[in-house]
Amino acid sequence: MPILQDTGASIDLAPGRLVNPQKFTGESVWVKSPLSNELACLPIDRIKLELPEIGVIDTKAAVLEKSIIMEHYLMGNQTQLIVDQREVEPEKINAVMARSQEAILKSEPKNVEKERNSERIRAEVEAIDECQLPPSDDGSPVSLLHVNREEFKAAQASDQSLLGCWEKGKKSNNVEFEIENEILFRKVKDHRGEIRKQVFVPSKLRVEILKLCHEGVASYLGTTKTNDKLLRYYFWPNIIKDTEEFVRTCHPCQKVGKTGETKKTPLKLVPIFSEMFAKLNVDLVGPLRE
């Protein structure tokens, strides 16, 4: 008997001519037809369904009267939930197969066995080799700074442009600068009211920091976004001015340009002539060969 699925039914419906009334569970359910407002009280019986690739499922179904002719079994959402929870064995291990794996499958004998009244072919497949990442480009202009903590502390302490900031940081009544573990920081409040620390960058490392926040993976951002990225973690005197100069003189940015920088030619009024043929436009070409 064919099995049809009804996504609008909460319980299965089975024809009464295929069910033994002596095996009813004693339960009943009220069923409403979508074509009428009348309710019908139907008995419930335990049904064993045999589904392809799933096997035998034990479920419950409402049994119709024998006078109602139905040539199929109607499966509802409760049984479909049981089917979805059943673990179905995948028939394909890999959708894409390498040439070496295909050669191994062709050379090895196939092991055929019968399971659930169907033949299934099983073959052992070797594991796929791990993918190796390509070597990094040594000529990349963007790389992390190769400087340790002691070198950074020495460069920050000997930088002449940071002497005034060091003096302010050593004062007890200072609220803008802070010295933590011999490293100078600037405290700033963000838009959420939280205090964030910005480390002071010495002069010899500023160009590398600018490259890190503007070039390469930073996608050559404009002045405003480059400043926003810098000021999240770094600070030095005249940082805004240095960033604007760096972005303005960036060679790739000069070659490509930015959207909106090109100015459009202003429109001009077309002169109006009161008399026809008062002015003629003539296109002359020549001299031409004979």
TrEMBL record:
Name assigned to this protein: RNA-directed DNA polymerase
InterPro entries recorded: Integrase_H2C2 (IPR041588), Retrovirus_Pol_polyprotein (IPR050951)
GO molecular function: RNA-directed DNA polymerase activity
E.C. code: 2.7.7.49
Alphabetical list of Pfam families matching this protein: Integrase_H2C2
Domain Integrase zinc-binding: 201-257
Species assigned in the record: Araneus ventricosus
